[in-house]
Structure to design on (340 residues):
């Protein structure tokens, strides 16, 4: 796949005067600076920074009578709390900080596709794979913490002991393929939407991409919801006790 | 009609195959052509599957509007899981290109 750096990376390359050189085995040997090569990391870091700034702003100006921004965030936190409590019995709110952070990171990354000169960090597989791996590590860690290491790994073997040699590898394969599906879903949706919007922009730069950009806003929201929801479901599967 | 369509399809294939004509002989099913056809088939199947899911969800909400919230959440998760299959093909198409 050919690499398209965002305008921000190109502009920064020019302003900072970074050297451009070919990267072996990448984008047919095109000459790129380090910022253009690791464009996705630049955008992801920027998205994380924006998310931190906005949440910091909300936190600093917490008021008894909430403004529009605080009201929006109260809605988001309330919705996430409700989702966690619905899915994880008794102690769902314990996981709110992690799930909320992932949701905000993914959401701001998705929205970066709509801003000029930026590209969504999540339209690169490396970023979504990172996010999916963090979620994977988190729910396995908490599964082991809640149930105990032995019991957690034993429940992959299934209820019938003589089927365990068959079940265990299959379950482990299923567990590992979750990382793949979790990351590829987000990456494919955002990248596909971004490419289609780009093609529409190439056809006619005025008005034509607007419906596609609206769809991008909608899909960004839906995909954030799906990513968060799946993380919650995996987490609830890992930490819930079987009675 | 069917015969005509088959012939027209074969002619199109031949035209595409001859139009390549470059010294490097590349098979027709190597490269972007495959990606486009695969993505079309995947999108068609995904459309059918998602349509069925949405129909069932709409019927459920119409019969029991109070369950709308739970049904919507479940539907979105289901749609995402169906969509993932197309996304795999899309990723493969990116990789082929």
């Amino acid at each position: 796949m050919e690499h398209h750096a965002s305008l921000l990376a190109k502009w920064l390359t020019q302003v900072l005067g970074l050297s451009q050189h070919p990267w072996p085995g990448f984008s047919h040997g095109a000459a790129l600076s380090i910022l253009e090569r690791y464009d996705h990391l630049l955008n992801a870091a920027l998205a994380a920074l924006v998310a931190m700034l906005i949440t910091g702003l909300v936190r600093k100006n917490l008021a008894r009578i909430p403004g529009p921004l605080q009201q929006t965030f109260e809605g988001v936190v309330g919705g996430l709390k409700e989702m966690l409590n619905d899915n994880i019995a008794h102690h769902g709110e314990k996981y709110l900080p992690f799930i909320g952070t992932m949701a905000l990171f993914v959401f701001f990354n998705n929205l970066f596709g709509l801003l000029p000169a930026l590209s969504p960090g999540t339209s690169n597989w490396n970023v979504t794979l990172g996010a999916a791996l963090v979620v994977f590590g988190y729910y396995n860690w908490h599964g082991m913490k809640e149930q105990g290491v032995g019991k957690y790994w034993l429940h992959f073997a299934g209820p019938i002991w003589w089927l365990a040699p068959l079940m265990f590898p299959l379950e482990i394969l299923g567990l590992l393929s979750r990382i793949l599906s979790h990351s590829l879903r987000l990456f494919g949706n955002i990248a596909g939407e971004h490419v289609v919007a780009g093609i529409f922009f190439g056809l006619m730069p005025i008005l034509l991409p607007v419906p596609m950009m609206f769809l991008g806003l909608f899909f960004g929201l839906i995909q954030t919801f799906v990513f968060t929801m799946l993380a919650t479901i995996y987490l609830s599967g890992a930490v819930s006790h079987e009675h | 009609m069917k015969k005509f369509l088959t012939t027209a399809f074969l002619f199109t294939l031949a035209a595409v195959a001859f139009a390549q004509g470059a010294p490097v002989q590349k098979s027709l099913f190597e490269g972007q052509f495959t990606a486009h056809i695969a993505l079309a088939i995947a999108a068609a199947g995904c459309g059918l599957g998602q349509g069925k899911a949405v129909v069932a969800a709409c019927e459920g909400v119409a019969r029991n509007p109070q369950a709308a919230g739970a049904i919507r959440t479940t539907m979105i998760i289901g749609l995402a899981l169906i969509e993932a299959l197309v996304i795999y093909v899309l990723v493969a198409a990116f990789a082929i290109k």
User: Anything to note?
Assistant: Chain B is about 80% helix and 0% strand.
